[in-house]
Amino acid sequence: EAGVAQSPRYKIIEKRQSVAFWCNPISGHATLYWYQQILGQGPKLLIQFQNNGVVDDSQLPKDRFSAERLKGVDSTLKIQPAKLEDSAVYLCASRGQGTGNEQFFGPGTRLTVL
Amino acid sequence: KQEVTQIPAALSVPEGENLVLNCSFTDSAIYNLQWFRQDPGKGLTSLLLIQSSQREQTSGRLNASLDKSSGRSTLYIAASQPGDSATYLCAVKTSYDKVIFGPGTSLSVIP
Q1: Residue A1 confidence class, pLDDT cut points 50, 70, 90
Q2: Least Cα separation, residue B103 to chain A (angstroms)
Q3: What is the pLDDT of residue A13?
Q4: Is A3 exposed, middle or buried (0-12, 13-18, 19+ CB in 10 A)?
Q5: Which residues on chain B are in Cβ contact (under 8 Å) with A107?
Q6: A106–chain B Cβ distance below 8 A for any pair
Q7: Count of A–B CB contacts within 8 Å?
Q8: Closest CB from A4, A42, A93 relative to B104
Q9: H or E, element range at A55
Q10: How many CA atoms lie within 13 A of B24 on its CB side?
Q11: CA neighbours closer than 13 Å in the CB half-sphere of residue B85
């Protein structure tokens, strides 16, 4: 089966600009996660979707970050406006039922804010 | 609040050596624990998933154990190879469906 797809793979922007990331989970996976991974740290959960509903967004900086998952499939994560400290890798993961609750990760989008 | 730590932060071993990576968590009420591998500039690859009712899981040269009562998991890598060089992360899934990652252990296997 195809894995989790993410685009773009790399993005360089200046502070105060806007950026959007896209994720296509494994087909049939109801749960989708967005993580932020700062260099040298483990991934930190930003938001979790169950189908098209938000399960957990407690660590999402809502003043600048937003995410949606229309129709419960693809998802986009947006940052507006970006700050220097947003430089990180943004990982998308999905999980289906009956897979032992295992998460499958995409390759990530590396964001550099100058 | 669940916290996950990993020791050591970095490890360098000669090829062929057996090694153990450690993961500790503060709240034993976990649903499962998963070990991942991350290569530079890449996403995470799942290695082993241990359910809360299990004590260990094995895949090839990898063996992961789980001791919930002590809040610890170990990843054992037998006969290490240069291709094993990567960062290894553990993640616990809590009963509230939250997934919390440790900071990772950077492993370097020297030929």
Answers
A1: low
A2: 4
A3: 97
A4: middle
A5: 42-43
A6: yes
A7: 56
A8: A42
A9: strand A53-56
A10: 7
A11: 11
CA distances B89 to A1, A3, A102, B10, B65, Å, are 24, 20, 14, 12, 14
* Tens-place pLDDT, residues A35-88: 999 988 999 999 999 988 999 999 999 999 999 998 889 999 999 999 999 999
Q: Does A5 touch chain B (CB under 8 A)?
A: no
pLDDT in tens, B82-105: 999 999 999 999 877 788 999 999
What confidence score (pLDDT) does residue B98 get? Answer: 81
pLDDT at A102: 80
Q: What residues contact A67, with CB distance under 8 A and at least 6 apart?
A: A34, A46, A47, A49, A57, A60, A75, A76, A77, A78
Distance CA B52, CA B92 (A): 10
Q: Residue A102: which of B4, B46, B103 has the nearest Cβ?
A: B46
Instruction: Identify residues of B whose CB sits under 8 angstroms from chain A CBs.
Output: 4, 31-32, 34, 36, 41-46, 49, 51, 89, 91, 93, 97-104
**Is-contact A11 A89, C-beta < 8 A?**
no
Closest CA to B84 of B18, B24, B7: B18
Alpha-helical runs (H) found in A28-83: none
